[in-house]
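Archive transcription. Copying these from loose printouts into the bound notebook so they stop getting lost. Printout 1 of 2:
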Amino acid sequence: MSARNDTASPLLARVLAADAVWDALGGVALVAMPFAGAGVSVAWWPVLVPVGAACLVFAGVLAWAAGGRNMTEIGAVTAVANAVAVVVAVVLLVAFPGLAAALQFLLVALAVGCAVFAVLEWRATRGARAG
């Protein structure tokens, strides 16, 4: 896939850039959580560290796209990915009711942020495609 310049939507660029920051912060928090002494068992590191690392990589892709390259395509995929992340967070919260309070808070915060960005990216992508 070639990098296509896509500068028609400054709104989408801002949304992708903000989501890149959000994903980077979430990724750092997920990676640090098992080792931060916040009551989260170190046994969770095989789940949290790779997911956090994936968030950091995804933040890099979003930052790259926010520069005007393939924004509409990446924005559409990102909207769906954020919606899936909300579902995964809710499933984890329901499946593991005894999670440490810090991890529960982080999952809820990430789910709310992902829900907001799913809507913003979906609407901004549709707007960019329409005009």
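Printout 2 of 2:
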Amino acid sequence: MYRLNGRAMKAGKADWTTPFDLKSITKDKLPTVEIVYSYQEASSGAINGFVADGAKGIVTAGTGAGGISTKMSAARAEAIKKGVFFVTTTRTGSGTMYPGTTDGIFAGDNLNAQHARLILLLSLAFSSDYDTIKGWFATYGTQSIGVDPSDISKHWAEVTIVKAIKDGIVSGYPDTSFKPNKNVTRGEFAVMLMNGLKPAGEGAKLAFADEKEIGTWAKNAVAQALKAGFIQGYDDGTFRPNEPITRTEMASMIAGAMNLKADSSAATGFTDDQDIPSWGKGAVFALKQAGVVSGSENIQYVPSGSTTRAEAVTVIINMLNKK
């Protein structure tokens, strides 16, 4: 569906076909699939109304924490219990698609709402199995070319980056690049981490002094991380979502997510061990012991250094492999 010119190059080949045999169905057999637009305080009326009218699928677009307003999110959860499938077409500011944490929600990648509706309609006409439809969206609803090979080709984290994108932890940019060496902000890392963990339920109420600086695309992830105890603000009551996350802050969040016991008196073995702040030393030590971060007696940890996108996804994938 996306980048049809690229797919046209496959015409006549086996991977050009789709499972949607339109000759085998009639118009009256097509399911009802609708589109709703969200904004920060949008009500649940649109979703409830479409479900009451018999909609089998709904595409959400617009804004809101996690790509959908709180009230719409609650209505969506109830609709999923009734067998309704959803597609989210909202891409966050970090370049991430935020599909939610429950079966029944598909990520629309770079599809606009109208194209996502068409694929969902066709999918539901031929299957009601979540994993099958998810596979179709991953195959027929995504870009044909993926991440620009020149951007990550031969990069030390190439394999991990590809896996992170496939697993929905992070996405590339519209120009097909990934920008592996770009620094990650605290808000962006919270989104990546929660995309990896896929927690269920609502997050904590945000009360940071700079809450308005937290983008709508990151608020749900920050709220969930706060509720889980993975993050905390600074002494002045701020969260500083747009500040680059330091390597020590990253370690603290990952250790919290893994429920690792942090011994602040332990020596990490890094040559700059004395520079690691006491509040984060235990986390760094625990992650090194768990094999999430690597190092030897002869290298530095650089605790105050920033974290790149490649480093962030590598640590998150390592964490998930150890859980």
